[in-house]
């Protein structure tokens, strides 16, 4: 079964979560990685490949790549083109039974075109969703709003995974989000800083801290 990794916003931790899943379960579950839309020079596909340590054949080519680091609809317009959201939705629907970690671009409400949002693509693809959420001050509002949007569209949500640098609000943030939304928590991964980890650091942190009770693994099988 494929799983769609989205988030409450940009730079919340979608690529990190995707890489953690691939590093820990890529071999045992036969997982592949697919980022349909990449904007900007930094390649999340390359980052996930580097961090996870899996062979390159497991990382599928982006469906669309744009030079400008911005919302996909605008990045496409700057290059004089438009994303075919219907075609992309059909493609994702066709691979939903495969073992693929699909990483979205930005947050749920990011436009792919002037008429289609990322959350619409998720709904049309019928791929189960994991929402990546932050843990620090402000997490409650943006996460509950995202969950309300998901629930109103009746998307198959596996749960919320929390990622970020903890602060004094973190413990209550996570508790409050789960209590108000009623959705499962799939776990958390706390960071010490925003600095990028080396592959060695990442692999050590993954084996030591990520999904110790296999809650997330069980959700995506």
Automatic annotation (TrEMBL):
| Gene from which the chain derives | bioD
The Enzyme Commission number assigned here is: 6.3.3.3
Query: What keywords tag this UniProt record?
Result: ATP-binding, Biotin biosynthesis, Cytoplasm, Ligase, Magnesium, Metal-binding, Nucleotide-binding
Output the CDD domains linked to this UniProt entry: DTBS (cd03109)
UniProt: Mg(2+) binding residues = 15, 44, 103
Cofactor names from the entry are:
Mg(2+)
**Reaction catalysed?**
(7R,8S)-8-amino-7-(carboxyamino)nonanoate + ATP = (4R,5S)-dethiobiotin + ADP + phosphate + H(+); (7R,8S)-7,8-diammoniononanoate + CO2 + ATP = (4R,5S)-dethiobiotin + ADP + phosphate + 3 H(+)
Q: Where are the transmembrane segments?
A: none
Q: Which family does it belong to?
A: Belongs to the dethiobiotin synthetase family.
Q: Where does substrate bind?
A: 39
Would I find tRNA-binding among this entry's keywords? no
For binding ATP, which residues are annotated in this chain's numbering?
Answer: 11-16, 44, 103-106
Pathway(s) served? Cofactor biosynthesis; biotin biosynthesis; biotin from 7,8-diaminononanoate: step 1/2
Biological function: Catalyzes a mechanistically unusual reaction, the ATP-dependent insertion of CO2 between the N7 and N8 nitrogen atoms of 7,8-diaminopelargonic acid (DAPA, also called 7,8-diammoniononanoate) to form a ureido ring.
Provide any one GO MF term from the record.
dethiobiotin synthase activity
Database matches in Pfam families:
AAA_26
Tell me which Gene Ontology terms the entry assigns under biological process: biotin biosynthetic process
Entry GO terms, CC: cytosol
Assembly and interaction partners? Homodimer.
What is this protein's name? Answer: ATP-dependent dethiobiotin synthetase BioD
Location comes to: Cytoplasm
Species source reads Leptospira adleri
* Residues the record marks as active site: 35
């Amino acid at each position: 079964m494929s799983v769609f990794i989205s988030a409450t916003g940009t730079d919340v931790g979608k690529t990190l979560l995707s890489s953690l899943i691939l590093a820990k379960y890529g071999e045992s579950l036969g997982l592949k990685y697919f980022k349909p839309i990449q904007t900007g020079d930094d390649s999340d596909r390359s980052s996930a490949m580097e961090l996870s340590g899996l062979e390159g054949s497991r990382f599928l080519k982006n469906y669309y790549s744009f030079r400008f680091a911005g919302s996909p609809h605008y990045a496409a317009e700057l290059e004089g083109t438009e994303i075919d959201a219907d075609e992309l939705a059909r493609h994702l629907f066709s691979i939903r039974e495969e073992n693929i970690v699909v990483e979205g671009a930005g947050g749920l409400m990011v436009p792919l075109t002037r008429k289609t949002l990322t959350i619409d693509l998720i709904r049309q693809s019928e791929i189960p969703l994991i929402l990546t959420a932050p843990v620090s001050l402000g997490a409650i509002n943006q996460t509950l709003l995202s969950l309300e949007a998901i629930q109103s569209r009746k998307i198959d949500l596996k749960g919320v995974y929390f990622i970020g640098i903890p602060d004094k609000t973190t413990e209550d943030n996570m508790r409050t989000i789960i209590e108000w939304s009623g959705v499962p928590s799939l776990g958390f991964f706390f960071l010490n800083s925003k600095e990028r980890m080396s592959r060695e650091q990442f692999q050590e942190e993954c084996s030591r801290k990520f999904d110790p009770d296999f809650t997330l693994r069980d959700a995506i099988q």
